[in-house]
Automatic annotation (TrEMBL):
Keyword Oxidoreductase: yes
InterPro entries documented for this protein: NAD(P)-bd_dom_sf, SDR_fam
Protein name (Swiss-Prot/TrEMBL): 2,4-dienoyl-CoA reductase [(3E)-enoyl-CoA-producing], mitochondrial
Keyword Oxidoreductase applies: yes
Function, in words: Auxiliary enzyme of beta-oxidation. It participates in the metabolism of unsaturated fatty enoyl-CoA esters having double bonds in both even- and odd-numbered positions in mitochondria. Catalyzes the NADP-dependent reduction of 2,4-dienoyl-CoA to yield trans-3-enoyl-CoA.
UniProt organism field: Macaca mulatta (Rhesus macaque)
GO MF terms, alphabetically ordered: 2,4-dienoyl-CoA reductase (NADPH) activity; identical protein binding; NADPH binding
Chemical reaction(s) catalysed: a (2E,4E)-dienoyl-CoA + NADPH + H(+) = a 4,5-saturated-(3E)-enoyl-CoA + NADP(+); (2E,4E)-hexadienoyl-CoA + NADPH + H(+) = (3E)-hexenoyl-CoA + NADP(+); a (2E,4Z)-dienoyl-CoA + NADPH + H(+) = a 4,5-saturated-(3E)-enoyl-CoA + NADP(+)
Keywords annotated in UniProt: NADP, Oxidoreductase
Top EC class, one word: oxidoreductase
GO cellular component: catalytic complex; cytosol; mitochondrion; nucleoplasm
Biological processes annotated in GO: fatty acid beta-oxidation; positive regulation of cold-induced thermogenesis
Family per similarity comment: Belongs to the short-chain dehydrogenases/reductases (SDR) family. 2,4-dienoyl-CoA reductase subfamily.
Length: 361
């Protein structure tokens, strides 16, 4: 995978996994295919239909940043199909208009497009004024705009750092503060949702600006959940794991090699889909979740718990190897330290020429 020193915006589309390639996403993102899933994925098929009842958001206004493509487009499509009047914002007006027209024609509900660079607080202020003018105060605010790039941290320039933190952290803060102040003034409540990532909590090398900024977004969301609940506002976060998008994967994984490695460390055996994330987002923003506030929800097929567990790579040991190891353990009579027993057994198995995972050697 080639490292890129320039910024790219990973807001593409994502897809489901089946035993054979199949069409996905009925609201118009470019069709992608995947057939690299693990065998266990058959137990975790992604559902493509809306989870909530029809008209769950009738009379509601939803504002979505980064709403023209990828996850933002998927969430907008679902909210619109459930009755919401949606307002989408991003920097590219031509993309926004095309998305707004496409979703409106499919759902029958108006979708408004407003050009906005969330890094610019004045532009954000104007956007919020336009939002209230064309649709009213929002009941749902989804901070989805993001930017990312991969690079060894020592190669980062101050401008590279600033570009990402301005979009992810400052942009989210500018939108949240401006809308929040308008809601307080109007004595109206709303559900806020931020889309971050699983490495916001753990940290990650090679995406340090993004990890730092998204961790800040999560801290802000939890802080405001405590402070602004009295104003009728609640704040939640979704941490998505790998969801295949055209934009991100075409640059990060052009050969598909990294995708297979990602699936190998996801216990559910497949990548996530836009529809699944959109359903989760819709639920968290709905009245069905009115008592959920300050939550950070992992949406990763179990990836983080697998990579966090020190001994989880033992899943690569075959049944035959376990039989050999168990026999050797019984012979060693070392009974008090599991790690010592495994180390002795593994060393002996390895000397006999059996193949073991690198983690055990």
């Amino acid at each position: 995978m080639t490292l890129q020193a320039r910024v790219f915006f990973a807001l593409g589309s994502r897809l489901p996994c089946g035993l054979a390639p199949r069409r996905f996403f009925s609201y118009g993102t470019k069709i992608l295919y995947q057939n690299t899933e693990a065998l266990q994925s058959k137990f975790f098929p992604p559902l493509q239909k809306a989870m909530l009842p029809p008209n769950s958001f009738q009379g509601k206004v939803a504002f979505i940043t980064g709403g023209g493509t990828g996850l933002g487009k998927g969430m907008t499509a679902l909210l619109s199909s459930l009755g919401a009047q949606c307002v989408i914002a991003s920097r590219k007006m031509d993309v926004l208009k095309a998305t707004a027209e496409q979703i409106s024609s499919q759902t029958g509900n108006k979708v408004h497009a407003i050009q906005c660079d969330v890094r610019d607080p004045d532009m954000v202020q104007n956007t919020v004024s336009e939002l209230i003018k064309v649709a009213g105060h929002p009941n749902i605010v989804i901070n989805n705009a993001a930017g990312n790039f991969i690079s060894p941290t020592e190669r980062l320039s101050p401008n590279a750092w600033k570009t990402i933190t301005d979009i992810v952290l400052n942009g989210t803060a500018f939108v949240t503060l401006e809308i929040g102040k308008q809601l307080i003034k109007a004595q109206k409540g709303a559900a806020f949702l931020a889309i971050t990532t699983i490495y916001a909590e753990t940290g990650s090398g090679f995406v340090v600006p993004s990890a730092s900024a998204k961790a800040g977004v999560e801290a802000m969301s939890k802080s405001l959940a405590a402070e602004w609940g009295k104003y009728g506002m609640r704040f939640n976060v979704i941490q998505p794991g790998p969801i295949k998008t055209k934009g991100a994967f075409s640059r990060l994984d052009p050969t598909g090699t990294f995708e297979k490695e990602m699936i190998d460390r996801i216990p559910c055996g497949r990548l996530g889909t836009i529809e699944e994330l959109a359903n989760l987002a819709a639920f968290l923003c709905s009245d069905y979740a009115s008592w959920i506030n300050g939550a950070v929800v992992k949406f990763d097929g179990g990836e983080e718990v697998l990579i966090s567990g020190e001994f989880n790579d033992l899943r690569k040991v075959t049944k035959e190897q376990w039989d050999t190891i168990e026999g050797l353990i019984r012979k060693t009579k070392v009974t008090y330290n599991m790690f010592t027993r495994l180390t002795i057994a593994i060393a002996q198995v390895d000397r006999r020429g059996n193949q073991l995972p690198y983690y055990l050697i």
